[in-house]
Amino acid sequence: MAEAERVCVGVPQKADLKLKYGWPFPDMKDPPLTFRVKSNIIIPLVGTFSKILLKWCNSVSGHNVERLQELVGNRPEGVPLVTVSNHYSCIDDPALWGLLRWRDLWSAHTMRWSPAAHDIAFTRQFYSWFFSHGKCIPIIRGLGVYQQAMDFMIERLKEGQWVHIFPEGKVNMGMEHIRLKWGVGRLVYDSPVCPIVLPFYHVGMDQILPTRVPYIPRVGKTVTVVVGEPMDFKALVSEMKEKQEDPTTARKVITDKIQEELGKLRDRAEKLHANILHEENQ
C-alpha cells in the first residue's frame, strides 16, 4: 500500500478499534471554561490559516457559496445543519472553510463539528488534544453507525449546531464514484430536530495538497466549489417514522437521495473546473 493511502485512507484492524487516549470531550452541554478557552484559540487560528491558504495563496471559483455562508451563520435559531461533500485531499477540512466569512471562521460556537479518523487524527496525545478542541470527533471506521462519535454528533444536531461529514468515508484519491456510507443517513433520520442538509462538491483541493509525498501545501492552484440547494427531509423522515420503517432502509433511502444530489453537483463542478483551467491555459 502506498504511503499516502496508508496515511489518508488506512482502515483499522480489529485490535485498533478503540481510542488510544480515551474519549476526548467533556460534557458538551456544560463544557468547562478551560475547554471553551482552548477552542476559542485553536479555531480562529486554524480558520485564519484556511482563509490564507484557500483565498490568498490559491484561487477559488465559488458557485452559490452565499448559500453555505448564510446557512452557517444565519439559519434560524435551533435549526441544525448537516453539510456533505466529497473528500479528495487530507486538507479539505479545514482549508475549504476559507470560503466562510471571517466572523464565522473565528467563532468556536458557529464552527462545524466533523468526524475525523481515529487512527490518523487521534494517534498521539497532542493530536487528540488539538483536534478535539478544533471540534473534530474521533470516528472509528469499521465500528458502524451506532458508535459513540455518531451519538455525539446527533446530540450536537439536537442543540441546533452544524455538523460536516465526508460520506465517502475516506480520502477518495482515485476520485471514483464511491457508494456513500450510511452514517449520514443516520444523522438525518435519528436527529431529534430534522437538520437542513446542504451538499457541495469541490474540484482541485488535491492540487493544493497532493496525496503523495512530500505532503506540503502548494500555492497558485485553482479550486472550484459548487454549492447545491438545501435538502429538506422533514416530510420523508416523518413519513418513514409513521410507517415504522426499518432504520437500515431509512438510512439507505436518505443516503441515496444525498448521493444523487452530490452526483449532479459533481458533473457541474467538473465541467466548470475544466473550463476554468482551459481559459487559464489560453
Describe this structure in words.
The protein has one domain: Glycerol-3-phosphate (1)-acyltransferase (3-Layer(aba) Sandwich). Helices cover 45% and strands 13% of the residues. It has helices spanning 3-9, 33-56, 65-74, 92-95, 102-105, 118-121, 125-133, 148-158, 183-190, 205-208, 234-242, 247-280; strands spanning 59-63, 81-85, 114-117, 136-139, 162-165, 196-203, 222-227, 231-232. The strands form two sheets. Strands 1, 2, 5, 6, 7 and 8 form a six-stranded mixed sheet that branches. It has a two-stranded parallel ribbon with strand order 3-4. α8 runs parallel beside α9 and α9 packs across α12. The longest helix has 34 residues, at 247-280. It is a peripheral membrane protein. Residues 255-282 form a coiled coil. Keywords: Acyltransferase, Coiled coil, Lipid metabolism, Membrane, Mitochondrion, Mitochondrion inner membrane, Mitochondrion outer membrane, Transferase.
What share of residues are in beta strands? 5-15%
Order of helices and strands: HHEHEHHEHHEHEHEHEEHH
Give the overall average pLDDT: 94
CATH topology: Glycerol-3-phosphate (1)-acyltransferase
Shape: globular
**Number of self-contained structural domains:** 1
- Write down the Rg: 18 Å
CATH class identity: Alpha Beta
Biggest β-sheet description: 6 strands, mixed
**What is the strand tally?**
8
Helix count from the secondary structure assignment: 12
First-last Cα distance: 38 Å
Subunit arrangement of the protein: single chain
Contiguous runs where pLDDT drops below 50 for at least 5 residues: 1-12
Determine the fraction of residues in helical runs and give it as a percent range. Answer: 40-55%
Family: Belongs to the taffazin family.
Keywords: Acyltransferase, Coiled coil, Lipid metabolism, Membrane, Mitochondrion, Mitochondrion inner membrane, Mitochondrion outer membrane, Transferase
Subcellular location: Mitochondrion inner membrane; Mitochondrion outer membrane
GO molecular function: 1-acylglycerophosphocholine O-acyltransferase activity
